[in-house]
Specification:
four-stranded antiparallel sheet; 6 strands
Length: about 110
């Protein structure tokens, strides 16, 4: 027997990660990537850490994984593997996230 989802529920957000609005940009995969890795990096640094979506989207356009018409699902991952993606913590730490490997695990973070 299938149970019905509750009418209301709350998704845990211990680092108060903001909801990003896509607006007129066609950068849906950049936003999704950033949302995922905001949580990963926030857990790593134990404070709210946000991916620079503009940096990621500009790199996607510059290096050919996206156009003004849209982007490819693997685009942000490829950019993070080859070129890295900038981030910043609430306390002012900044750096670049690089992914490596088949499973796209965190390879290294420069600060």
């Amino acid at each position: 027997m299938l149970e019905k989802f509750p009418d209301n529920f709350e998704i845990p957000n211990p680092y108060d990660i903001p909801m990003r609005i896509q607006g007129d940009e066609n950068n849906c995969t950049s936003l999704t990537f950033a949302d995922m890795y905001d949580y990963v990096l926030s857990d790593y640094f134990k404070e709210r850490t946000l991916i620079d979506v503009d940096d990621l989207w500009n790199k996607q356009k510059e290096f050919g994984t996206a156009t003004e018409e849209g982007d490819l699902a693997e685009g942000p991952f490829n950019i993070a593997i080859k070129y890295g993606v900038r981030f910043a913590t609430d306390s002012g730490k900044t750096g670049t996230l690089f992914l490596t490997g088949e499973k796209r695990q965190i390879g290294f973070i420069t600060q």
